[in-house]
Every structure is written in structure tokens, then in C-alpha cells.
Amino acid sequence: MIAVEVKELTRRFGNFTAVKKVSFSVRKGEIFGFLGANGAGKTTTIRMLCGLLVPSSGQARVAGLDVYTEYEQIKKNIGYMSQRFSLYEDLTVRENIRFYGGVYGLSRAQIKERTEELLSFLKLHEQAHKLTASLPLGWKQRLALSTAMLHNPQIIFLDEPTSGVDPVSRKNFWLLIYQLASEGRTIFVTTHFMDEAEYCNRVSIMQDGVIAELDSPQELKKKYHASNMQSVFMNVVKRAQNEPDSF
Amino acid sequence: MQRILYIIQKEFRQILREKVFIGLIFGSPFIQIVILGFAITMDVKNVSLAVVDYDHSVYSRRLIDAFTVAGSFRFEGVLTSEKQVKIALDKGDIKLALIIPPHFERDLINGSHPKVQALVDGVDGNSAGVALAYVNQIAIKLQKEWLKNAGVTVSKIKEIHLTTIEPRMQYNASLESVNNIVPGILAVMLMIITSFLTGMSIVREREIGTLEQLMVTPIRSYELILGKVIPLLIVAFLLLNVGIIAAGLVFNVWMKGNIFALYLTAFFFSWSTLGVGVFASTITRTQQQAMFVAYFFMIFATLLSGFFIPIENMPKVIQGITYLNPLRYFMVIIREIFLKGTPLNLLWQETLAMALFGMGTFVFASLRFKKRIS
Q: Are B196 and B316 in a shared domain?
């Protein structure tokens, strides 16, 4: 089963091509990592797949739906969380959950049920009536992910979800991601932390709008004779700089 | 529909959590009405006045008396020559001088039309005009009094055609500009709340990233816009009511017309200003930018509305432009309803123009508000 399929996807901003003919596919239940430096085209790609941005050319299907025509349908099937967490800081934890539940079109009873579920799952019962602004960053991040999943989506897009979060919280967050993947959900995650890349089933390394490498971390490490993803990434970047025409 | 309700609920939660905002809703109408109502006045009071009396007669003295007792003038004293008048005017000691010619009394009695000269400092053209009108009024009052004294019957006086026109003010009998200003302030206030806050409230979500989050939900653009706009519309109406009460309490200017007629027209008016707010949010990225766009619109809308400057005084081209200004229509409507109690069926043209303009602006702005960036 293919969750996300992308063929020669391209996005231009004026004269600048942010994403150049990118092709890949993500299997259902896979944790798919999207690595790359800032400005490599990760966010642009993810925004096209989530229906926030219209591609300039190429094809993409998310959950079997076309990004050009069925983008509103796609939104019912995906969860999205960006580095900004997107919670209302002046609402309480419970109010945030209720609001997003309502926006996702859940019934009153469903919202109630999901709220209790989430609060137990995140162990946030005691903080439920507190303003979101008062939560530590790591908790906000997990709350944001949970609210983005109130409608029980099968594909989850995470755009640098862990930037600015301490290592312990990052670890906890990845435990959450694993749990979601074990439930059969597809996780599409961008990051610039190379240690996180190790947690992915497969990673693609983006460089200047193209995919420079795409394989499992094990294979990539073997290929570059590297002990960790950090040196794989450095090798890929170096190669790209030495032979800029190879892509 | 359900989604709209959730957004409205969320908006009100955020509004009520902001203590400053609640103070603003109830405090600002009072403050604005008080400050602007007192400050923006076209009434002319305390015009400093000097008199040159070449006649020194009973009649000339009566004339001077009439001016000194009138509240609009402040009598500075008697000067002896026109030369002194010019100096006093130049120095700014006086704004108005009356020069009573020699043989004023004699000429008056034998009917050879003596002429009293009034010299006005015209630097402030508006005040000068109003001051002259006062002079005229007093002169006419005196003429009538003298005719009566001369044994002319009341019915005869009515037949005599006095050369100067006597303006008779209706609906604003005291000719106090506060009556005119206060409904205007309410209109402007309604515009500020709806256009400013709408733009800022949408752009704020863009700044903190929640707008992007909402864009990836199945919510529709119109649901999002209505959900954002309806709470502000409710707040604006609350404010309007507080303003109406403030106007009554502070200036004793109570509304003469039907409040529901005002509500209906204010509702139509708000769509255009809400539309401006939504439009501002589609072309800006930060709250400051959105504020600036809304501010830019508001300055023009206010200046070209007839709030301070009568539209008839504007050049023809500018007059044409004012027809595109929704505030122009609402300014007429709110003043008519407030001061005259004009029924809505006599204001249908303005109402229709405003409603069409409002719907047009709102729909245009909402269509620009896209969930997807192409």
C-alpha cells in the first residue's frame, strides 16, 4: 500500500525553483524522514503534499488523492504539525482540543471522548484547565501533535516538529511517533537533527531542491562507510558541492 | 455551520480573556464621545469684539448692547477709529469689529438705510462665516424690535421684506455642532472596530501559525471568515449601543429615530468595513501592516464622508469619488435617524447603495482569502 506517491514534483517561486522534479513514494505505516539543510526544499514539498501550496508541475497523490484536484479531501485524511505548534496560547489545553475537534467536524460526543482519551494519553489531566502558554515546550509539542490527530488521520506530516525542544522531550516525542507508526499510520517527518534520522525507516536527503539520496539509514551508512547519519549527511552535502551537475 | 460556531466560541474566549479588550469595548465609546464631542466643535463662541461708534446715539448704544449681551461675543471695548480697529485685528486682539457710521440714528429713522460695517478676521474662514451669520441675526432682531417701536404692527412687520435672510435651523435648533458630531463619531467608531480588528485578528493567526494549521483542516474559507467576523460584528454592535448611551448621558443627544432602523443600516455598513479588514489581511503578513492598510482606508473614508467637511464643498471630481465611500452613506443615515428620526423608507437609496457596496466588498475580499497559495 502506497500512502504518498510523488512524481517529478516541482515548485517555482518566480525565477527560483525550490523543488526540482522530486520523485519518491512512501509506504503505509512507514516513518519517512526528510532531511536537508534550511532552504533545501523540505517545507515546500510538505506544503504541496498537504494542499497548502499548488505545485508548479509534476504529480502527487496523498492517500490515493490528487493534490491538484482533491486537496480538500486530502485534508480529511492527514494530520499536519509544523515547528510552530499552532496552539492558541491564550486558550486552555481542553479548549484547544475542543476547538480543533470542532474544526475537524467531530460531534460533541466524539470531542468529549477524544478529549478524555488525549488527556489520559498525554497525562495532561491536571493541566487541562491551564492556559497552554504555561505548558513546557515539550508538552506543547505533544499536545499540538495530538490536536492535529483528533480526526484520526492515517497519514501524518510533521514539519521540523522537534526544533527548539530539549533532548529528553525529543526522545519522548519520537516514542510517540513510534507508537503512532505501530498503529499502522504513515509518518512523514522533516528534520535537521541527524540523530533523529536514525529513527526513520527510510530517509531522503534533500539538497538544493532535489533528492540527493533516498534509502534506509543502514544502507546509507554502508554506502558512505559512515558510523552515523551525521557523517552520511556531510558526505552527501560535500558530494553535491563537488559535482553540482550530478543531480 | 457547526465549525463556524466553534470558531465563534473560540474568538469570544480569546476576547473575554483579554481584560484590556473588555475595558476598551465599554470605555472607549465614552472617552471618544467625550473628548471628540467637546473638541470637534464648529460652534463659534467668545468671538472677541470691539466697536467704533461714530454716532453716540440711543440707537447705536442699543446696537452695542445687543452684541454685548449675546453669548457668542466677548466685548473687548470701544475703539475710536477704524485705524485702531485695523491694528487690533492685526495684533489678534479682536476677531470682529463693528463700525457704526455717523448719523446712524437719524438715517435709520428717516429710512435712508444706514450701513453698519462688520470687519472680521478671516484667517479661520469657517469661524468667520459663522460669526458673520450671528451678526446678521442680531441685526435682524434689532430691526424688528425698532419697527415695532416705531408703531408698525406685527402683521405689517411680516409684510416688510427684510433684506437679509434669516436662517432658520431645524432639527438642530441650537445649531450646536455636537449634535452633528456625535452620530458621526459613532459611525467612525463602528468603522474602526470592524475594519481594524478584523484585519488584525486574522493576521494575528497568521503570525502565530494557527492560520496555517487551520488551512490544513477541512474547514472552508467562508466558514473561517464568518467565524472570525461574526464575533467582531457583535462586539461592534455592543460598542455602538454603549456609544448611543454615552452620547445621551454626556451631551443629552438622544436618538430620535427607530433603533432597529439604525441596527439594520449599521449591519449593512459593517459588511463593507469588515470586508476591508479581510482584504487587509489578504495582502499583509504582520499585524502592523494590516493596521496600516486599514488606517489608510479609514483616513480617506472619514475625510470623504462629510463628517467634518461638507461634501457639497468639495470639487466635483472628489464629490464623484465619495460615492464609492460606504461611510458617506452611513454618515447621512445615522445623522438622519439620530437627529431627525427619519424613517427608513426615506433613506432607502443610501441604504441600498451601502448594502450593495458592503456585500460587494465582503465577497470580493473573501474570494481573495484563499486557503491555498498558487
A: yes
